[in-house]
């Protein structure tokens, strides 16, 4: 199987009409094997400060809703069909989910939010703080700036990196754009 995942946080109850629209999208042929996973939030979790840990999405969320598209068929056409459907569902969800920024969860990495720039074959990134904050603020909210400062101290050469890793401000690989 192949899959595409997106995630949103829901802070206000979604109307019946909103859920009916989601259901309609799940029944579309392009959905193939579309799925929504709803994970409730609250309880003890909301008592932990937003800044106590890197994960800030504790208080103020009723639940997170993961939108998944699965497909078996290989090839660009099948991938594009399912990924387009995933983006369509995500767009539909906009009025029902968190805003300013529209939050997401790092462990369900959404590369549609942006990716690091890689500098040729050496694997070094040339991603600026501003560019990384597009996804960083969605994943970490105001903790992102602090995480960049820590990353800069602990990993100044940006050795530990991935498509959406936190940049190091002073590394040789990222200082060009800071």
Automatic annotation (TrEMBL):
Q: Residues in domain Berberine/berberine-like?
A: 104-167
InterPro entries xref list: BBE (IPR012951)
Instruction: Say yes or no: keyword Flavoprotein present.
Output: yes
Which domain of life does the UniProt lineage start with? Eukaryota
| Record keywords, A-Z | FAD, Flavoprotein
What does the organism's lineage look like at the top? Answer: Eukaryota, Viridiplantae, Streptophyta, Embryophyta, Tracheophyta
Query: Would I find Flavoprotein among this entry's keywords?
Result: yes
Which Pfam families does the annotation name? BBE (PF08031)
Citing just one GO molecular function, the answer is:
oxidoreductase activity
Report the coiled-coil segments: none
Task: Check the record and name the Gene3D superfamilies matching this protein.
Answer: 3.40.462.20
Record-given protein name: Berberine/berberine-like domain-containing protein
Q: Where is the secretion signal located?
A: none
């Amino acid at each position: 199987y192949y899959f595409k995942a997106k995630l949103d946080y829901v802070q206000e109850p979604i109307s019946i009409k909103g859920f009916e629209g989601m259901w309609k999208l799940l029944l579309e042929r392009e959905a193939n094997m579309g799925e929504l996973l709803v994970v409730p939030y609250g309880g003890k979790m909301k008592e932990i400060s937003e800044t106590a840990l890197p994960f800030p999405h504790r208080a103020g969320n009723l639940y997170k809703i993961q939108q998944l598209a699965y497909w078996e068929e290989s090839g660009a056409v099948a991938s594009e069909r399912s990924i387009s459907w995933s983006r369509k569902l995500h767009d539909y969800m906009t009025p029902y989910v968190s805003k300013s920024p529209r939050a997401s969860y790092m462990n369900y990495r959404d590369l549609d939010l942006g990716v690091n720039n890689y500098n040729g074959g050496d694997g070094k990134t040339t991603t600026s703080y501003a560019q990384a904050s597009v996804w960083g603020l969605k994943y970490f909210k105001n903790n992102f700036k602090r995480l960049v400062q820590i990353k800069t101290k602990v990993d100044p050469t940006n050795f530990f990196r991935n498509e959406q890793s936190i940049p190091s401000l002073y590394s040789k690989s990222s200082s060009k754009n800071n």
